[in-house]
Design a protein that fits this description.
By secondary structure, the chain is α+β, with helices and mostly antiparallel strands. The protein contains two helices and six strands, in the order ααββββββ. The protein is elongated. The protein starts with a helix and ends with a strand.
Length: 133
C-alpha cells in the first residue's frame, strides 16, 4: 500500500457534507437569479406582426406591418425583403416615436423598400424599444 501512495500520492479527501450542501444550494440560488434576470431583461414591450406585402417590381417592394407598443415608447424595427433563395435583397430601419393615447397602441405602417433583385417576401425582422418616456 505504501508503494502505491509513494507512486500516486495519497487519496484525495471528499468535501465535507456541509460544504457540499452549501455549494449546491448556492449554485441553485445563483442559477435561479440568473434565470429570473434573463426572463425579465429580455421581455420587450413591443410586439410586431407582418400583415402583407406587395412586390411592385424587381427594384421595389412594400411591407405592410402592425406594430404594438406603449404609447410613450420609441421603438426601432428592422424591415427586410427577401428573395426566393432567402437572401436579403432590401432592408430599412423604421423608427416609431411616441404616439397619442395611453397603454398599448397598435399602428399599421406601409414600409417601402428598394430591392437589389426581385423580392418574394417582405416583413419585420425584429423590433426593440429604444426608450420609454
Amino acid at each position: 500500500m505504501s508503494s502505491l501512495t509513494n507512486r500516486y500520492g495519497s487519496p484525495k479527501r471528499a468535501l465535507p457534507k456541509k460544504t457540499r450542501k452549501t455549494l449546491i444550494i448556492g449554485s441553485l440560488g445563483v442559477g435561479m437569479l440568473a434565470a429570473l434576470y434573463l426572463a425579465t431583461a429580455t421581455h420587450s414591450n413591443v410586439q410586431f406582426k407582418d400583415n402583407s406585402f406587395i412586390v411592385h417590381s424587381p427594384t421595389m417592394a412594400t411591407a405592410i406591418v402592425d406594430i404594438s407598443k406603449e404609447a410613450s415608447a420609441t421603438v426601432q424595427c428592422e424591415v427586410r425583403a427577401m428573395s426566393d433563395s432567402y437572401a436579403i435583397v432590401g432592408w430599412k430601419t423604421l423608427t416609431v416615436g411616441p404616439t397619442e393615447g395611453q397603454g398599448m397602441t397598435t399602428t399599421r405602417f406601409d414600409v417601402d423598400l428598394r430591392t437589389e433583385s426581385l423580392a418574394t417576401t417582405a416583413g419585420i425582422e425584429e423590433c426593440r424599444v429604444l426608450k420609454t418616456a
